[in-house]
Amino acid sequence: MSTVFKESKAPVAPQPEARKEQRAASVSPTGNLDMSRERFLGFIPADWRLELTRLPGMRRLLKSRWLNFTLFVVNWAAFVLILMSGVYGTVVGNHSFGIVFVWIVWWSLLMFLLLPFTARFWCGMCPLPTIGEWLQRLRLVGKSGERGFTLNLKWPKALRTMWIANLAFLTVGIFSGVITTRPLATTAMLGGIIVLAVVLHMVFEKRTFCRYLCPVGGFLGLYSNFSAMEIRRKDFETCKGHKTKECFVGSETGYSCPWLEVPMNLERNTYCGWCFECMRSCSRDNMSIRLRPFGTDLLVDRHRELGESWKAFIMLGAAGMYATTMMGPWGTIKDWANLTGLADMPDFLKFVVLFISVTAVGLPLVHALAAHLSRRLALAGDPGLADPGLRKVFLNFSYALVPLGLMGWAAFSVPIVLASGSYALPVLSDPFGLGWDLFGTAHVPWTPVGTGLFPYLQVPMVLFGLAYAIDVAAKLSRQTFGDTRAALAAAIPQVIYLGLLSVALMWLFIG
Amino acid sequence: MKQEGLAILLILAVLIGLPVAAMQYEKAFARRFTATIWARQAERGGFEPAEIRVREGERVRLRIIGDDVVHGLAIPDLGVTVPEIKPGEESIVEFTADKPGAYPFFCTVLCSPRHGYMRGTLIVEPRG
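Output (structure tokens, whole complex):
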């Protein structure tokens, strides 16, 4: 198969898109919010940063082309066992490596550690797209400028949104009752994603699949805007004076951004996949990883889109729906969600309607009502105020749902990890439920821990999410309506709306 | 290119070596037993295999793996009982097959509406 994938080696001027990004970079991405004066929760300076790439050995580690590959190999080893466990071994979920390691271990790591603290680092070690990427590059670890197996087509402009990832997540979410309990279903889903990723890598350029289609990538992208880490350029002047723009066009040592971003102009984490190629390609070491306050990117008033708003609704609604079906006392809804055969289809369709009604229709409608009230109150308080329009108000305030959604998911995951985490030990020794005892842990009994502590962990998590969401909503209100009394009035419906959502979540979690 | 070679070896070891190693391990593990029986509800096939052949006088070691709900196993004529076979876990039972004949075995736990159909036969073939 002939391809057109080729890296530029000679210095090249940035393409028009990059020039536009550069011009935009001279304007504050947070609009009228002065980040040097903003404080999260009233005391965390919004512009606080700690550059981790200054730590001894850190930059060298990140520049090593073996870093991601080593992580891929480790995760592929786990994935091989996960994929095998669906077709080779027991169908009993809690004795299946696939079910336990994907839906208990990985999911908990993602919600408690990776996503809140390291943005999309998971994407930098996710094995699902690797085969496709290796075929594109004809290299596993090295840097090549050679032709690879890809048509290298550009993803259609009209589809460059989060909507397809939303649909993909909804599809997976609807079948979650089956996927998270049946090893074969988990294998089929992950195997299907791998095949799809390979095919799309062979047709479209770079990480098009990860950016626009991956069902997990969408929510990782949105929630990573809350994360406490970022990859950004260190100094704008250095980039400005460097004509080659290696992070964008690639260099001898690193590929151009696989995520189709212009790394030197990154303002949000949404589409930064932590592949570290920009670290490797930048000859001036002007890219850095920094610690920062939670939620910083939620205030960036650029690149916002309704697809991301719906992602926020779907994620928050799904946390509520899963709490209902997996942990709630409503047996009828559990039965609806549990598809065991064609005979269950009429009931399962009821669950599909309920799931979509809550996540993709109901929540957006409630949000629209809150946005409408915010706008009305703001305009009533200050008749001379320029009307930003309902769409803008709706869009901006939707980002306040991110802290609440992420903390809601973390709270939802508490019982999963504490009550079911002990399944990981037997499964390590006996990954397929065949009676093996590789490490002497096969007979470790199921040991739920801290079950009496669930409410004391879940409620503070939701309250932390609420506090952060209200704080972000207040800042978004000032961003939308200006630093005026109108902004204060506009924030009131948001506070009530976010409070009610939090009460609903806590009710679902602790009854 | 040396690095690429090493990387290819590593990934092949994981993608091909690991599944092969797992299957070989299971093969060797299974040899410790006379037979491995999967215990499933009758609707899903019941005992598999449902017929086991051993030789008269042989020390029989059965590995029974529960694959859905709790089951039990009894071979009444040989006085063999496994009261509980838990889902996803193995139960091992040992006995000597000292009388030739065909011995039916049953599930002893009311495991599904078709529980009564969950049965099999242990055939003890005469020596020589």
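Chain A touches chain B through 26 residues (CB under 8 Å).
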